[in-house]
């Protein structure tokens, strides 16, 4: 059975460094719930994954040279490029009494990204995802520091193998950090499915698994600011009883927290590469100033610390 358009699931993202090793092991997340209620392993998942195990993920920043910031994420076979442009001057008719910056999000499904949805269905998904992503990202960007300016974020889905929404969320956050846009925190996401009869919970389903889900299945898309523990996205489709819902949220939060740590490490490594590149091109005082960044890169620290604690 195919999930409804509004139930198109997103994914958790365990990102890897730019020099990702293809044979690196999958990251497995286990929720903090009593052993008696823990999700049992699903024997028939593709690739032998456990119920609480994500697909392999590759993530890197700086994927689009002419953008202010960019990121590429590959979650299983789902492939997404996020690009950030700006800040630019906002349109004049929007500048008056505008104390905050503007954010324009565009979601585009490549015509060849999937055979399952036609153009009209993809357009509906673009509208839905744009609305959800815009609200989530506006809650973490310090727009009050960018008065009368605007940012443009473009998300291009090259291949859709499930869990697109949360993959887009993580890719957008990485691209914003790469562009040095000031934020309260990074944003990581997770997609969790609930099977109606068995009560089994599945993390990060691919497209084939989504198609085979029984009638009445539910999906939860969760976006989390990992360092502050604040939710910025909570979108569900289908019935969610209180008990399974709590278990799904716990699993989603633990997945997002682990993924957020990997996101931060990926960004720090990118900064270190930039520092090393500048160091090779610098001498004397410039070299000393750049070396001072190596202990903790200021250009990254400032992006994620708003001073609010």
Describe the protein in words.
The chain has a single domain (5-304), classed as GHMP Kinase, N-terminal domain (Ribosomal Protein S5, domain 2, 2-Layer Sandwich). 32% of the residues lie in helices and 22% in strands. The protein has seven helices and nine strands. It has helices at residues 92-95, 119-138, 164-178, 207-211, 242-281, 284-291, 298-304; strands at 57-61, 69-75, 78-89, 102-109, 149-159, 188-194, 201-203, 218-225, 230-237. The strands form two sheets. It has a five-stranded mixed β-sheet. It has a four-stranded antiparallel β-sheet with strand order 7-6-8-9, with helices on both faces. The longest helix is centred in the last third of the chain and has 40 residues, at 242-281. The termini are far apart. The model is unreliable at 1-43 and 293-298 (pLDDT under 50).
Task: Explain briefly what this protein structure is.
It is built from seven helices and nine strands, in the order E-E-E-H-E-H-E-H-E-E-H-E-E-H-H-H. The protein is α+β, with helices and mostly antiparallel strands and 309 residues long. Helix 2 (119-138) packs across helix 3.
């Amino acid at each position: 059975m195919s999930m409804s358009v509004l139930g198109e699931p997103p994914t958790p993202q365990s990102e890897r460094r730019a020099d990702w090793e293809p044979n690196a092991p999958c990251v497995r997340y286990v929720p903090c719930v009593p052993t008696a209620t823990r999700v049992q392993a699903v024997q028939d998942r593709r690739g032998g994954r456990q119920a609480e195990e994500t697909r392999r993920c590759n993530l890197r920043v700086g994927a689009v040279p002419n953008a202010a910031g960019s990121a590429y994420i590959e979650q299983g076979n789902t492939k997404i490029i996020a690009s950030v442009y700006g800040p630019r001057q906002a349109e004049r008719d929007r500048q008056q009494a505008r104390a905050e910056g503007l954010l324009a999000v565009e979601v585009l499904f490549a015509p060849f990204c999937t055979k399952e949805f036609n153009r009209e269905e993809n357009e509906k998904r673009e509208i839905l995802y744009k609305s959800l992503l815009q609200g989530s990202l506006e809650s973490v960007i310090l727009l009050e520091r960018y008065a009368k300016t605007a940012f443009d974020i473009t998300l291009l889905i090259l291949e859709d193998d499930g869990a697109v929404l949360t993959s887009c969320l993580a890719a957008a956050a990485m691209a914003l950090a790469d562009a040095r846009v000031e934020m309260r925190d990074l944003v990581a996401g997770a997609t969790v499915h609930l099977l109606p009869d068995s009560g089994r919970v599945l993390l990060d389903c691919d497209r084939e698994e989504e198609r085979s889900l029984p009638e009445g299945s539910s999906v939860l898309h969760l976006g989390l600011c990992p360092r502050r523990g604040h939710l910025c996205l909570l979108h569900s489709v289908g019935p969610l009883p209180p008990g399974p819902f709590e278990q799904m949220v716990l699993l989603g939060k633990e997945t997002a927290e682990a993924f957020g740590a990997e996101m931060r490490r990926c960004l720090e490594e990118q900064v270190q590469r930039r520092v090393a590149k500048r160091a090779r091109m610098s001498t004397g005082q410039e070299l000393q100033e750049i070396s001072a960044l190596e202990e903790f890169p200021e250009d990254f620290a400032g992006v994620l610390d708003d001073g609010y604690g």
